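Mods, move this if it's the wrong board.
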Amino acid sequence: RDIGFDAQLERLKKDAPRNVPTKFITGNHDASLKNLAGVIVGKMIAESVPEYEFIGEETGTVQFETPKGTFAVQLIHPGGGSAYALSYRPQKIVESFEGGTKPDLLGIGHYHKAEFMPSYRNVCTVQAGTFERQTPFMARQGLQAHVGGWVIDVWVGDGHNRIRGEFIPVYE
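Not the wrong board. Structure tokens:
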């Protein structure tokens, strides 16, 4: 087990896929390290792994330019706990977007849930899932962890997009 920031950074440098450009944001645990020790985790990761681009603390947007137009992906790592219904928090986040500011695809971390909503207010919304098993805290709260990740295919069209998601669960 890799304990501590330096050990985790060394593990990432050793095991990160090469030649795969990766854009990423940081989340609440990274913010805790920043508050406690002044370490900007995303910046240090991007400096250590050339293929990794740090696009923001807790939020960032990537614009893909295609022959059919721009496709915007926004990544967020919001605060707060899981809601009574799986889609409640993502719906509230999408509802908070002003007209003209909505991304085409919204990727949400933090809640350790996996969900694909193909269109809510014309935004495809994906809860990212997690690669952390259920913690004792989550067990005490009655929260499950959706362990795994997504493969998402996007076809940008004239006036419409097609988006297909497949969740790949990871079992022990």
